[in-house]
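TICKET #2291
ISSUE: user wants both folds in one file
ATTACHMENT 1:
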Amino acid sequence: MSEEQLIPVFIPALIALLVHAEDSKGEPLTHAEVLNIRDYANVMMMEKPHADALDESRGYDDIDPENCWYDWQMCRRKMGRQPELDPGARISMSKTDDEGMQQAFAQAQLSLPQFRQLIYSNTAREYHPLVKTKFTLADDNIFVWLLVVESNIEGFLAELFELPPALAGYEIGDTFKITNGAVVDWMINHNGKLHGGYTIRAHRATLDALEQEKLDRHLGVSRYL
């Protein structure tokens, strides 16, 4: 069996560990505490069908470790925990360079003017604009979502808002100048309505109906505009 067929599964579930830790603390966990619990939790590698069966037996999907802080805050809201904390934005990575993804990259480039219009209209800061760009690593390349801090005619100033394991040499809050040509995707999730996100749409198109529903729920998307 190839290594790609295995996915990491937290046992006990990561959400259960966070609930226990916050209950023991008696107040909301900090961002650093949440990531520390994630980093030191027990993980087992499972085949995807077995991991899906475990989720079904639990009756819920566990927190995505790449989006630990965001997913935890969404869970806290569903549980009615107070005070509500800013979850920030979600992150996703993709190494796919097939035809569907290349078309998605082209769509993102062509629609950058639309993205800028949405950013400029966000005067009340109701949503988090994101750009996806490529990071070139020593042994591989990955695509990472960054939070847009500033925008100008030449590109964007964007920052890391959560640290994927592959980017261990960086820190949350590190900022990068992303030129227009380096943008491979952009997205804005405004109250469940997704603008952009062309790589997400391309990936979603490869899934069956059940997996699409699961992805939409995980992303918090109810409508693709």
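ATTACHMENT 2:
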Amino acid sequence: MQVRVWKIDRGAVLEQVKRWADDLLRRVAEVEAVVLFGSMARGDATAHSDVDLLIVLRQSDLPFHERGRSIPHPPVPVPVELFPYTVAEVETMLREGWGMAVPAARDGLVLAERDGAWKALISG
């Protein structure tokens, strides 16, 4: 039996994702903020963890399941989950206490934001 154990280099992953988020904000006008949340943000990621990213969009006419198709994934050696929600959807989640915006607001790391957009959302 062969056992492989590896560890995620959190610092390297964060650096790569931060560069990607900054670039995404520059290239895509609809993106208001990119927030890392989950185990990678909290610092308790394991070898089986992924990168969870809340992408806050100014607005979108696309259904949720189609939004992520136009957003390239960051070039990192671990799985990535993108959660592209509009500002209005994030406001609803935070107000009603459900959805991915809640853990992102609680323990997320803001990787990039336009004009304090994330701060304004979580401060109500």
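RESOLUTION: both attachments delivered.
EXTRA DETAIL ON ATTACHMENT 2: The chain has six helices and four strands.
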